[in-house]
Specification:
The protein is of the alpha+beta class. It folds into two domains: 1-58, Winged helix-like DNA-binding domain superfamily/Winged helix DNA-binding domain (Arc Repressor Mutant, subunit A, Orthogonal Bundle); 61-143, Lrp/AsnC effector binding domain/regulation of amino acid metabolism (RAM) domain (Alpha-Beta Plaits, 2-Layer Sandwich). It is 41% helix and 18% strand. A four-stranded antiparallel sheet has the order 2-3-1-4. β2 (97-102) and β3 (109-115) form a beta hairpin. The chain starts with 7 loop residues before the first helix and ends with a helix.
Amino acid sequence: MPPRKLDPLDLKILAELQRDGRMTNQRLSERIGLSARPCLERVRRLEAAGLISGYRAVIEIGQLPDLVHAFAEITLKSQSTQALAAFERHLADCAEVVECFLVGGQFDYLAQMVCPDLERYNALTTAWLDEPTVGVARITSRFVMKPVRRFAGYPLALLAKNAAQQN
């Protein structure tokens, strides 16, 4: 189902659910100034359109001892469509890769990884380099010292600007 144009109530719903995805529909409807039934219908429409893709708890990994949190800049030997697809299939089976982006610039992928220790991180990345079917040419690792700002949702102003461009 193609998404319809976002209106101010849709934007309020998205903003509120980014702040607290566990709030009840009743609480959400009160926060945006809409009765419960139409609010629920809007949320379901936003979900069906793919604008809301899920709800989850945010785990503070800094509270878990001895984890290695790293960003890996990954360069492939080939940037062909087949090579990219093969690498992405390989990443799908790697639980330690918690997020990954195909990017433009000096490397091909930026992967956020969490490993139980440096030994596991090293074994994993070495295996990627050693396995010819994975196609990795180089990995540059950036280890997280401390989080400075965590993702807390997309800015409402960005969502509103996009909605205005749709109108």
